[in-house]
Each structure stands twice: as structure tokens, then as C-alpha cells.
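wait is this the right file?? whatever heres the structure
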């Protein structure tokens, strides 16, 4: 079989489903951080409403995708991290099922994930993988490129998927799916330090640990207010309402926070944890079972082309 590779900025020719080619994609799947998170109450279905600013970063997974439209109808998923299940519960598996069911992309799928984004870390690792697959494969689907419906439908896979499909920086409301892109004002490449514990925080457990008074309904700041605060007082922007709940789930987070505070660093929790982020480089050795990873901000162009 011929092997075809289409970079994200180029669509394949029409009629690809009639060819005998195997399509190969090497997909870069960047992680995200939350530059602050506020709880605004709950919606009618009981989901937590939030306000957050999402930022794409250079830490990424790599997906190797082979799709044979006329091969046997099956999925083969593998991962460099043996702890990650490669079956129906995996978000990438569910993503392929979604493409088969809703867009008729049947055939043989082989996907291997080179995993660099820690699981349960608040960095959107599983959502990044799903978004990366969707971002590359949509060039095989007429009308999907740039489609708002395509982005909206991705929410069914994970709350962070709509943002990670777009990348860059965005102000988010709702469950994170109501997105407004934000300018980066020369911050592309700005360094950021990830403080990654050896333990994870499971998102359902963290939200279950939120006390009623911590999720009382209130108004959003809005993107304009956030932008002004980010320029003047970025530490205030990094406040995360899930911090107390995350510390109830993983009490060791408090020690890590104290380690950052005693150095006078500007830091916050990303998502529901367990990763903390710092705008400044730590100078002291980290606590046991904690590693520090230097990364940097990415703009939207990083999710539009392959490396």
C-alpha cells in the first residue's frame, strides 16, 4: 500500500475513501495549563460552571496514526506508558469510534501514543491526544476544517478538547467549551515551570471534594478584566478555586505550595491538579517525589502544523 502524509495545513485530494492508500499522520498533541480557575456555580444538569484562561504549552504527546479506509474494520491502540489502558475506555479509542460512527471513517485504525504528558496532572493529557487526532484527521472530512460544529461536538469526548483543538490562549466559560481567543501580546515562548508530583488528582474526586460555599453562584470576570489583571497582577489571575478541594484529595499538595511560596514565586494550580505552575524558576531543590519541568507558552500556530 502507498503511504500518504498530509500536514495539517494541507488537505488530501477528493475521493480518498476510494483509494487503497494507507494514510499516516504524525500528530503533535500539546498540553494545556489553566492560568487561574473560578467556580461560578452549577448548571441545571449539575455540572460545575467555571471561568478559566487556557494556555497551550510546549510539553506534548506524539501520536502516530495509520488509517486504511479499505482495511478490516478494527482499532489497534498502543501507548508508551504501560499504565494507560488501550481499550474502549481510552479517550483516543472513543475518538476513533466517534469518527467511525458520525463520519463513516471505517477501516483499520492503528494509533500509537508516545506519552509525555503525565496522567491526572491537570495538563489535559488525554484531551490533548483526542484533540490532536481530530485536528489532523479532519482534513479527510469535507467541511470539518474550521467548522464550529466540529469543535462543539468534540465536547462529548472531554471538557478540554474544544480548547485543545484550537490552541493558543483562550478565555473559557461554561464547562470550558465557551471559548474566546485571547491575544498573547508577545508572550509566545514565555517560559513556565511545571511542578509535577508523583501522584495524580482525579478530576471527579476533586470536584466531589468542593464544599458548597466554594461553588456558590457568582458572576464571571470576563475576558477584558482578566487581560487587564494579567498585565498588572498576574499572581491574582493564577488563583484557582479548586485548590482547597485538591488539597483535601491530596494533602501533600500543601507542602509543595509552601515550598513555592517561601521562594516568593508566582504560582497556581493547573486545572484540578496535581500539577502546579510557576511563572518564575524555582531556586530550591523540590520536595521528594516532585519534579520540575521547564516549558513555554505556544500560540495557535503550533496546533496548525506538524513539527
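ok assuming it is, sequence goes like this
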Amino acid at each position: 500500500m502507498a503511504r500518504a502524509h498530509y500536514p495539517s495545513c494541507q488537505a488530501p485530494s477528493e475521493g480518498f475513501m476510494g483509494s487503497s492508500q494507507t494514510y499516516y499522520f504524525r500528530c503533535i498533541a500539546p498540553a494545556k495549563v489553566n492560568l487561574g480557575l473560578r467556580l461560578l456555580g452549577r448548571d441545571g444538569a449539575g455540572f460545575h460552571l467555571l471561568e478559566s484562561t487556557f494556555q497551550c504549552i510546549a510539553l506534548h504527546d506524539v501520536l502516530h496514526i495509520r488509517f486504511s479506509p479499505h482495511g478490516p474494520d478494527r482499532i489497534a491502540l498502543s501507548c508508551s506508558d504501560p499504565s494507560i489502558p488501550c481499550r474502549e475506555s481510552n479517550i483516543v479509542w472513543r475518538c476513533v469510534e466517534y469518527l467511525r460512527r458520525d463520519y463513516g471513517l471505517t477501516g483499520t485504525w492503528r494509533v500509537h501514543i508516545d506519552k509525555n504528558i503525565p496522567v491526572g496532572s491537570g495538563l489535559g493529557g488525554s484531551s490533548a491526544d483526542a484533540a490532536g487526532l481530530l485536528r489532523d484527521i479532519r482534513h479527510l472530512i469535507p467541511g470539518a476544517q474550521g467548522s464550529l460544529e466540529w469543535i462543539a461536538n468534540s465536547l462529548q469526548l472531554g471538557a478540554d478538547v474544544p480548547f485543545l483543538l484550537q490552541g493558543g490562549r483562550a478565555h473559557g466559560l461554561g464547562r470550558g467549551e465557551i471559548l474566546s481567543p485571547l491575544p498573547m501580546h508577545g508572550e509566545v515562548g514565555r517560559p513556565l515551570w511545571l511542578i509535577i508530583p508523583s501522584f495524580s488528582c482525579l478530576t471527579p474526586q476533586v470536584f466531589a471534594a468542593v464544599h458548597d460555599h466554594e461553588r456558590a453562584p457568582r458572576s464571571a470576570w470576563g475576558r477584558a478584566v482578566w487581560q487587564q489583571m494579567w498585565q498588572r497582577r498576574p499572581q491574582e489571575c493564577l488563583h484557582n478555586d479548586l485548590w482547597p478541594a485538591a488539597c483535601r484529595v491530596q494533602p501533600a499538595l500543601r507542602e509543595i505550595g509552601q515550598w513555592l511560596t517561601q521562594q516568593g514565586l508566582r504560582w497556581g494550580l493547573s486545572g484540578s491538579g496535581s500539577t502546579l505552575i510557576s511563572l518564575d524558576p524555582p531556586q530550591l531543590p523540590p520536595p521528594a517525589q516532585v519534579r520540575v519541568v521547564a516549558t513555554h507558552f505556544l500560540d495557535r500556530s503550533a496546533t496548525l502544523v506538524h513539527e
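Residues 1-15 have pLDDT under 50 and may be disordered. so i think its the right one actually
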